[in-house]
Structures are given as C-alpha cells and as structure tokens.
Amino acid sequence: MSERTLYDRVWDAHRVRTLPNGQDQLFVGLHLIHEVTSPQAFGMLRERDIEVARPDLTHATVDHIVPTDDRSRPYDSEAAEAMMAELESNVREAGIELDDPTTGDQGIVHVIGPEQGRTQPGMTVVCGDSHTSTHGAFGALAFGIGTSQIRDVLATQTVAMEKKAVRRIEVTGDLGEGVTAKDVVLSIIRRLGTDGGVGYVYEYAGDAIEALGMPGRMSVCNMSIEGGARAGYVNPDETTYEWLRATDAFADDPERFAELKPYWESIRSDPDAEYDDVVTIDGSAIEPMVTWGTTPGQSVGITEPIPAPADLPTDEQDVARRAQAHMGVEPGETMQGYDVDVAFLGSCTNARLPDLRAAAGVVAGHEVDESVRAMVVPGSQRVKAAAEAEGLDETFREAGFQWRGAGCSMCLGMNDDQLEGDEACASSSNRNFVGRQGSKDGRTVLMSPEMVAAAAVTGEVTDVRELPTVEVEAR
Amino acid sequence: MSGPAATGETADIPSVESVEGTGVPVRGNDVDTDQIIPARFMKVVTFDGLGEFAFFDRRFTDDNEPKDHPFNEARFQDATVMVVNANFGCGSSREHAPQALVRWGIDAIVGESFAEIFAGNCLALGVPTVTADADTIAALQDWVDANPDGEIAVDVAGETVTYGDTAVEVSVEEAQRQALVEGIWDTTALMRSNRDAIAETARSLPYVDDRDAGSGRVDD
Ligand code: SF4
Predict the structure, then answer these.
(1) What is the CA radius of gyration of chain A?
(2) Quick check: B9 and A148 CB within 8 A?
(3) Contact criterion met (CB below 8 Å) for A357 and A472
(4) Residue A379 half-sphere exposure, CB side, CA atoms within 13 Å?
(5) pLDDT digits (tens, 9 = 90+) for A72-85
(6) Closest approach of B152 to chain A, Cα-based (Å)
(7) What pTM was computed for the model?
(8) B190, B200, B215 member nearest A19 (Cβ)
(9) Which of A289, A406, A407, B28 is positioned for an S-S bond with A66, CB 3.0–4.6 A?
(10) Cβ of A55: how many Cβ atoms within 10 Å?
C-alpha cells in the first residue's frame, strides 16, 4: 500500500481492535516506568488482584526524585525514600528490571531507553510522562500516558487511544553555526504556538532534521509536547541504524539487527504519503533561540527584539504582559545581557553526551562568572561515565561547574536542586512555566546547552557565537 | 468500602445501572480539585490512603482542628451519594480527586454540573455523575440534611433520583450512561477481555519476543 505515513503503519500494526467507546486498543512494545507516576497504578492492580502482563516489555528507572549529590540510602528526603522504596517493591514483585543508581545504568527515562537500544523504530512506546515523545526520534510512536492508562498497560500491555491527524514539519537547508536542534524546536513552537499541535502528531523531516544525529532528533521530538502535539517522530534512516547498532540490544547480536531492519524500513512514510497539514521552516534562517517569557512559545532569536504584547495576537497579549512582568524584561530589547544567577545544564531535552561535549567546548578556557551557580546534571549514569572518560567533567569542574549525578534535577525541582527566590536560570530544559524549577518567583530562560554554557561564563544571556570557542580534545 | 472499581477481577465489568445509599450534601459552586484533594497529599505512592484526605483543608484548620464540613459529621459517615452544586471538580486533571472521594465511600455524585475531566475520571472508576437543575439539587440537599439515614436511589439507566416519596428526573450524559449501564466503563477489564487478540497482535510484531508473559526475564 502506498500514500501512508509511519504513523498509519505503526498504528495499524499495533491495533488489537476498536473498543466500543470508539478508541483503538493498541499493543505496547515498550512500557517505561518511573517512581512518580507508576505507584498508584501498581496499587490499582493489587486492589484487583491483577498481575503485570508483560514484565519483559516493561522497564523501570528512577529519575524525578533521585538526589544528584548524596545518593546513599535512605535518601535524605523521606518522601523521596518512600517513593523509591515503593518502586523497588513494585518491580521486585512484578519481575520488572530496574536501573537504580547502583547499576550504573540509571538515568532519565527518556535518555536510558534510547541509550540501551530499548527504543526501536516501528515500536509503540509509552510512559507515564509527557516527554515520552522523545522516543519518536527513532521512528517509534511514543506517547505520554496518565495513571489509569499506566494501570491498563501494566494489566494488558495495551492502551486505549484515539488516532490523531499528522502534520509534516519540514525544516529545510543547513543550520547555521552555533544553531542546534534545540533552536529548531523552539522556532517551531514559536511559529505554531504551544497549542498549535493539539489534535496532531508531528512528523519532522527535511534536510536540517536529517542532518541531525540521534541526540538532536531526540531534542526536537522531546519538545513536541510543548508544541501541543500528542507525539512527534522522525522516519528511521542510516543515522538511526548506526545508533542502534552500537546499543546493548544489537552490539553483540548483528543477526537480530539484520532480522529487524526490514521491518524498520517497511514502516517509513511513503514519499507520496498524505498529510493533514504540511509546514515548511527555513532552517538556515534560525538563530540561537532564547525564551523571554513563561511558556516555551515565548521565544526570540538572540539578536531579535522581545515583542511588545500589543503586537501579538489578541489572545496572547495578557499572558505576554504577565510573563514580561514576571521575567522583568522590556519589549524592544534583546535578551542579550539579561542577568543570570543559575546555569542548569541537564534534562531529557539536552543532557546527552554531544550536548555536554558542545557545552564543554564553550566552557573550556573560561571560568563560570562569580555571580552564577552552575551545574551539569548528565542525563544518565552512562552519559556521565562517557563524559568523564573524555575528561569533560574536568573541563566543567575547572571552570567552576558542579558535576552531579544523573536525574531530572532542576528541570522540575522535585529533589533538592531548586531555584531560590527570584533567581534567573539559563536552562537547557524544556519548560519555563512559573514555579517549574522549584521557586514560584524563579525565572527560567530556555536555550541550547551551548548557550547555557555561554551564559554561565558571562553571567548573562549571551550569543554563544560571539564567545571564543576552544576545541576540547578527547582523552 | 472502595466502591465498584474494586470489583473482583474477571473480564466482566459490572454494569452500574443504579446506586442506592444515604446521602451527604456538599454545598457550593466551583469546588475545585485542590479543595477535593490538596496537592501536598499527591506525593504518595498509592491512592489507598487518600480517603481520609478528601476535602482536607475544608475539614481541618492549620492546627488540625476539625471545621464544619459534612464529611466530618457523624451522621453522614456512611453516605455513598454526594449531592453537590455547579461546576464541581474543576481545576486540574488529577485522578486523585475522584479516587479520594471513592475511598471515602462515595459511589455516585448528583449535582448541577461537573467539570468534564473530573466526570471522565469518575467514569473511569464507575462513579456516575448525574445532573439536575439548581432547585432540584437544593431540595435534595435539604432533604438529605433532614434525613441523613434516608435512602436515595440513583437510577442511571432510567435517569431518575428517588428519595423519600419523591422521584425527580435527572440527566446522565449519554456516553456515560451507556458505558455504565452496558458495563464498558472500565478500560482495564474491557481490554483484558481481548486477551487472545492481544496475543495475536504481539505475535504479528517482528520485534516482540514470542514467549509467554510473566517470566520476568528481560532479554537484551
Ligand atoms: S528531565 Fe524534566 S522533562 Fe524530562 S522527564 Fe525529567 S522532569 Fe520530565
């Protein structure tokens, strides 16, 4: 059959049947769980005396509440310790593998799945976490789900869902120097709005997307959710396969790789696939992006002026006014020179090895400004180890960054890593909502890891392209 | 009691044609999910203990002294039918809200109107949210106050509420009525009833290991 998208194909391959309520029941190829959203679901199963259907297709990690400094048990925070203990007992009882910090494999759920080769093209991936969209970078259909749905997946390895429309977003041309996947996705969200994706799944394509490595594609798919889309994906190609070949899943099993590859090839969107909408974005025109407000859609290029609320669409004006008051920014000015108190390099958007490498490249030879508290929180223990093997930790430490253990950390401030008072944070994470980083007066400026590094050393929002870059040699 | 959601595990989903029991009036419009279950009680690992925190900040002062609230009154402790006013359950999508109410003992809610997500979350637990006009609700709340031991019958299928000598017409949103009456409100049970079809789909996927579930062996 032709004229079909990857979304159509993978959906159909996983459809068990249509339920009486009109939703489709989909088989789930990979169910990822973490400590915050799974315990209630396990509780509901116990209440009904139901066993986990496919522990072999379920995988657990701990990321949201885990401390990033002292990880000895019991954790200092009682709530964190209780959540961790509950997760441990749930997975033990069900026979689910857990990457806890003693394994060396622990990390943010959306970093470890791809890193271990669990996330593969043509799969359905679900997790009780909105940024599950990240896994779409591999050509998987990946959805964040709620607690009742987690229960359903644990009980049946299926989930009830409605099919959405597909919007193809083509990013053409070559990205300029200092411009990253993060800047691409921030531009997309600015263009289409934080609710522009409602009712859609995004297919990202075009030369600029294809030229990205897997980590960059993950950064883009990760923030589909900030654009309102239910999921985002990129069709699998040689870049995808190259990544997979090196993972635990296939490194020692080239036969399995050869066996699955035809399936991966078969689910790609047809060249003449029909889309419900197509949007084209000129990648060569994108600058390093920074947010000026309190939604991920409120962003500008680093040399562009902050818009006046009155110049925005009517329904965005009030929000913009409030955001500008909260952030203390003036329309007409650029974000350059905005004072920064904290630099956070981490999160499932941007804490993979190439992110750290690029940021270290910016930091090398500089020192963190004395007014700035700067921290690197690698996305996983493996990322951390790989970075240390390259000596990136030393580059960061010498410059004055804290080098921490893997987890979500200040992305959402559920552990002790939080903003205080009205601190302003240059952050490589994905949400700049008021209160997101643990302080209700805190101010978050989203940007790429390179831009975070630049802000850390100057103490203000800075155009990374104007900061001298030193090549960091692998050791 | 943990309500109909705790019904034993079979592929049969109990149909909820009607709910009978005594009532409890909870008055006021726009009772939001933060009032129903304050956010600080969400740092928990199961829904199990949530019942005692239902309406917590409405029921207790900062020093944990009980305040005036129907959920604190001895005469309403066995109630299963809650009678509320307009836009009940607005605010966040937290499933903790209906979970707390169900765990306190509520099996059905009668009100002027409900927030959509809240009603959806109730349905997922098999809890009907039926509506009637403001006068009907006020009369029912007054009757419950005067008759805390009086039986109320919420007939979901027939869209009536009967109390004392009175029977009033109520509305049940059509999709909800159908789901409750036909016993298709519980997606877990509904989907479990398709186990053969699930296994077949799994077998058709090249990447899924074709072996029995439940071994706990992880293959990578
Ligand atoms: S890093 Fe942030 S966005 Fe990602 S899973 Fe953790 S809390 Fe969520």
Answers:
(1) 21
(2) no
(3) yes
(4) 25
(5) 999 999 989 999 99
(6) 28
(7) 0.86
(8) B190
(9) A407
(10) 24
